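Mods, move this if it's the wrong board.
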Amino acid sequence: HSGLSHEIWQRFEAGELDLALVKQARGQGAPRACWREPLAWVDSRAWPASERDPLPLVVFPSEGLYRRQVTEALDGMGRRWRIAYVSASLASLQGAVSAGIGVSLLPRRLLQPDQQELTHWPAVAPVELALHLGAERGEPLTRLCEALISLCDRVMGPAEQ
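Not the wrong board. Structure tokens:
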């Protein structure tokens, strides 16, 4: 199954999934492996939205982890904002930012050439990519888990212990 992390996590917790690879707040649960995921405020280079008032936001649906961080950070700095675009697709959010529809909070490693990081904006806590393994473990599941760890190590850097 593919979907938003909170949906995958709920299914894993309900015992419907043997393995779950999710984004989560750092230190949540007891994952088999996890990788730090720093976030960045991202805006379009060609059509910046960061000076508009209210600030247009490009965000995941309301249950998305980054969305909560966006609104809490902006509320904390007293910045007026409005939701300009919502999608569960990371690629769609990146496209909307690049097109100047609004500002978003996204993984720093995925910054696109036509985007700029807003480095003067408030820092937000990184999240983590976490691999959770259920109680049922057979050789195929163990091999899949090892393959996912190897792949994530190559993409994200070595797993944290």
